[in-house]
Amino acid sequence: MTKILDAYSRKIDYLRISVTDRCNLRCVYCMPPEGIPLVGSSDILRYEELLRVARIAASHGVTKIRITGGEPLVRKGIAEFLKELSSIPGVDDLSVTTNGVLLKDYARRLKDAGLKRVNVSLDSLKRDRFMKMTRGDNLGDVLDGLKEAEAVGLVPVKVNMVVIKGFNDDEITDFAKISIERPYHIRFIEYMPFNSSEGWQRDKCLSAREIKDIIEKALGELVPVTDRKWGAGPARRFRLQGARGEIGLISPVSEHFCGECNRLRLTADGKLRTCLFSDNEIDIRKALRDGSGDDAIEALLFRAVDEKPMKHYINENIFKKCSRTMSLIGG
Ligand code: SAM
C-alpha cells in the first residue's frame, strides 16, 4: 500500500464523499428558498462507482471516510451503501454528517451498517429561529435524532453549530451548556464564505477566539483536551469543568489549519475537489463510466492530491467566493 503525500508532504488519508445534492432543508446560509438547480440523477455517481473510488483510495492509505451531501439520509439505499463502505479493508473511521431530520428513523440502521459516529448540524435550539434558519419546522425531529443516535451508540454524538453574528450568537452559551449534561461534542464553526441567499459578510463571522471568550465568560475555563481520540480533525478541543462532553472550536476563517489538511472531497456529480475553498475540480466520473481501469482512477486521485493548494486564500485579496454552495460540494 502506498500512502499518499501531497506536494507539501501532507499525508492524505481522509475522503469526504457527497452522495447527493438533494436536501430536505433550505438553510439560509447554504441555499436559496427555491433550492438550487439539481444535478440530473444520471450525473450523480452511483453507489457502485463511489465504492470503487473508495476502494482505490483505501488501497492507498485513505482510512477515514465521511459521507455528506446535500442531506445524505435522503438518498435511497444509504444504509446498505454504508455497510459496503464499512467493509472495505483499511476504512477504519466511517462517519456521516447529517442535519438530523431523519436520524431518529435511521440511527439503528446506520449503527448496524457499521457506522461509528454522526455529526449533526444544528444552529438553533429555538423553534422559531430554527425555522427561520432552515426554512423547515424540524427542531423536534433533530432533537429526537440526537437522543436516538446516543441510545444506539453512535458516539460521541457531535453537534456542529455554525455561528452567525446577529443571528444565533446569543445561543452559544446554551449550546455549550449541553456538553455539561450530555456526553456530546458541541462544535462551534466559523461562518464560511460560500454562495447562498444570505450573502456572506466578514462581519457576520464570529471568530473561534470570540466564541471561546463568550463561553468562558459565562461558564468558566475551557480546559484543553489533548488526547487524539475521536478523529477530532481540525477542531481544537476543550472541556468545561465537570462536563460529560466536550467543546470544539473550528476556525477555518480566522486561523486556517491548512498545514494539517489531510483530505480530498468527492462531489455528488463526480468531481474531486482539492480544497473546500478552491473551485479547482478534477472530473473522475468520465473515467468511471468509459471503461477505464483502476489505474486511470488512481491517476486522477493522485493528480487531485498533487494539485492540493498549500492553503486557502479566504483572508487575502485574491480570494473569490466559491461558485458552488456547500450543498453541492458536500460540507
Ligand atoms: N445536510 C448535512 C448537514 O446539514 O450536516 C450535510 C451537508 S451540509 C452542507 C454540511 C455542513 O456544512 C453543515 O454543518 C452546514 O451547517 C455547513 N455549512 C453550510 N454552509 C456553511 C457556511 N457558509 N459556513 C459554515 N458552515 C456551513
Q: Which helices and strands occur, and which strands form pairs?
A:
Elements: E1 4-5, E2 11-12, E3 14-18, H1 47-58, E4 64-68, H2 78-86, E5 93-98, H3 103-112, E6 117-121, H4 127-134, H5 139-152, E7 158-163, H6 172-181, E8 185-190, H7 208-219, E9 222-224, E10 236-240, E11 246-250, E12 263-266, E13 271-273, E14 281-283, H8 285-289, H9 294-306, H10 326-329
Parallel strand pairs: 3-4, 3-12, 4-5, 5-6, 6-7, 7-8, 8-11
Antiparallel strand pairs: 1-2, 9-10, 10-11, 12-13, 13-14
Helix pairs in contact: 1-9, 3-5, 6-7
Bound molecules: S-adenosylmethionine.
The site of S-adenosylmethionine has 19 residues, from strand 5, strand 7 and helix 10.
Strand order of the largest sheet: 9-10-11-8-7-6-5-4-3-12-13-14
Category by helix and strand content: alpha/beta
Order of helices and strands: EEEHEHEHEHHEHEHEEEEEEHHH
Ligand roster: S-adenosylmethionine
Please tell me the overall pLDDT.
Answer: 91
Biggest beta-sheet profile:
12 strands, mixed
The portion of residues forming beta strands comes to 15-25%
Report helical residue fraction. 25-40%
N→C terminal distance: 28 Å
Strands, total number? 14
CA radius of gyration is 19 Å
Uncertain runs with pLDDT below 50, 5 residues or more? Answer: none
Globally, the shape reads globular
Helix count equals 10
Q: Keywords for this structure?
A:
331 residues; alpha/beta; two-stranded antiparallel ribbon; binds S-adenosylmethionine
Structural write-up:
The protein is an alpha/beta fold. Helix content is 29%, strand content 18%. The strands form 2 sheets. A 12-stranded mixed beta sheet has the order 9-10-11-8-7-6-5-4-3-12-13-14. The relative contact order is 0.16. The structure holds S-adenosylmethionine. S-adenosylmethionine binds next to strand 5, strand 7 and helix 10.
